[in-house]
């Protein structure tokens, strides 16, 4: 209910029903998060802090005062801050170019920058080592070695998260009406002033959302830190993993999990506080009308610089992988790919690698469907804010991003272990776990757009007698169609490369593609390594194709459904 | 505006169409589980591999189908089994090695069962007699591997023992794994404890550190990126000719080659046989198993000649029964380790955490 405007009463009074609808919208996401997130995590934390039926809160003090904990927390925080700053610095020009320029191959480029985001870290890590490590490419050219350094971690974080900024910020930027800025210019504002007064405030929520996501991702970074940082660097996430999975020290793990919760909650509060007053009603236009071919040396130069940056940071590591997948035992060729076709009979994967692609796609589609339904309902419920309760719900949806995968996975193991909820070995658990990570993306992508829809349109529709559902269908949905597609793409991509949660769920042997890659990498011999590289290349292709198809779905004019 | 709406609905329809299809492919899974106790579930770690034909033979012999649940490395798999002991995920657990055995036994996750044919297992592998809560299934050695070409080119004899590794001529050549995060890394550390005793191993590691040992997080990185002797490592331009790996790595390295060498002396890598630690893997019947009978049948099968002869080429480990023959790849290119280091499981369980802590503060600081 909109409280700060005079209430417009439609012909029939349907106030209570509207509240009912909103509560109904929230019910599904709340049930989803309660069952598949809050309950398992609470179970594992309780197991750590409760022994013989008594709470042991003394442990909290012990762990917190341990200097090692402070050390880990400090490293986690500053590397996340540095990674976020670096990612924004490098990716914002990319978001601008994607939003405002029209050039051949733009759809492909959008797909390419998203591929790193979905690559399993174990794959990206070895590509980065080949680039930055001893006698890697940089070492041979300029004698630069960055392995086991913080720089390698930061660059890998930019590599993974570039797409987050480009897609979140670029998606909104593309829909901002350039004529508003032009109008300001006509009225005498300078180019920079016009941008600062018109575009920047409109973009701020999206930039903040992207920055928050990148910070959360890097704050809870696991694979990149482990592979590239060497054993000397540990984030909170790595430490929680060690305490839980390796040492089975549940009390310490529980305390660290709570610390991570507190940090993530603080982040979300800051985020809510900065964004609250800045979400203005925007005039959104069709993205295809705002992009033009670059004009003049400056614009072409910017485009070239962005492309060069993408080539060096994102394409080069991927190219190393592709190169290695063809670099067979006897020169370049398809030897490893041929081996993939016959790898199904030695029992390493239990299935032919082709099947792992099918598994990944099937899980991905299921996870996307769940994430879009849950996230879409949540975003719809959050569109009209109603004080503190809803804001709390908003934060709740983000919490899974700040929770260690091992905590959730082990939580599943001990919480969902009795019928009718014994889902531990059910195939549905994998897409559910992946959707947990996907939902926040869906919400974050759709919310800025949903909130930017002018409420007067809705009111007008209501005056004309449309039911709330119909208002949403006729007014909101057309405007958020694009955001929905982007959100679905994100959810799908996240699920394809998702390795963290998937890997903590023991399941009947139908491994996803990333799990298969990790298994092959874990076995000696050139053939296994080469097959891992070949599978990774296929994963990249599958992701790129899936993302391209999504771009097509979005601009397909024949949709006569 | 309307076209946008239609497009969005189109996307939704595509998704909606996909869901029933998925439900169908999931449904086949569920169907298998309700076949009247004819399924036996094996819980294990990601490295557990068995040839499909061997499993088919088990089904043909007993009528039980095997469902496999794999998750994580050995340590994590054991910890997950401990956490879920009140509602076990399956009937049989495979993959507790001697570094984890005490933790598993102390937490009481296994029910006793004496496997048929246990008398064919060599004495050195037997643990937990007379209670028989676990059965030995395979064994393997963790040893330093060397890059043969490097030592030939540098006219240097490859190291053979722990003492050799701290000599100046081998300075800056060895890469090992983090004992805190990697199972071969831990095994190599335990080997030095076995060799130099409770008070000597720390000094040994100080010497090793002064001699330029490199520590990376996991085996993959050590072997595929840093080691100059593996095919993958050569491509990644690894420059450490010594790596902590397995005694079975040289045969595995040969297996992928187009033109295999004629003899072990021509294989790309070799094993420093005086630097080994012996790991034995055990399996056991989970307490509270839904299908205990099927579980017992599966445990019997794990000691059968058929399964035992399958482990070398599928998991690169050696059988534990005396009547199993090794494949040619192993007899030809495998190393014979005569005096590996071992430690009592109880001793490992008691000291493991403090050893790893001490190791970290020596090597990683």
Automatic annotation (TrEMBL), chain A:
PANTHER family: INNER MEMBRANE ABC TRANSPORTER PERMEASE PROTEIN YDCV. GO terms for biological process: transmembrane transport. CDD domains: TM_PBP2. This is Iron ABC transporter permease. It holds the Pfam family BPD_transp_1. InterPro entries: MetI-like (IPR000515), MetI-like_sf (IPR035906). The chain crosses the membrane at residues 21-45, 72-96, 108-130, 150-170, 206-230, 250-275, 296-323, 361-383, 395-416, 428-447, 483-506, 529-550. It comes from the Bacteria. It is found in: Cell inner membrane; Cell membrane. One of its GO terms (cellular component) is plasma membrane. Keywords: Cell inner membrane, Cell membrane, Membrane, Transmembrane, Transmembrane helix, Transport.
TrEMBL record, chain B:
Keywords: Signal. GO terms for molecular function: thiamine binding; thiamine pyrophosphate binding. Pfam families: SBP_bac_6 (PF13343). One of its GO terms (cellular component) is outer membrane-bounded periplasmic space. GO terms for biological process: thiamine transport. It comes from the Bacteria. This is Putative solute-binding transport system protein. It comes from Streptomyces mobaraensis (strain ATCC 29032 / DSM 40847 / JCM 4168 / NBRC 13819 / NCIMB 11159 / IPCR 16-22). The lineage of its organism: Bacteria, Bacillati, Actinomycetota, Actinomycetes, Kitasatosporales.
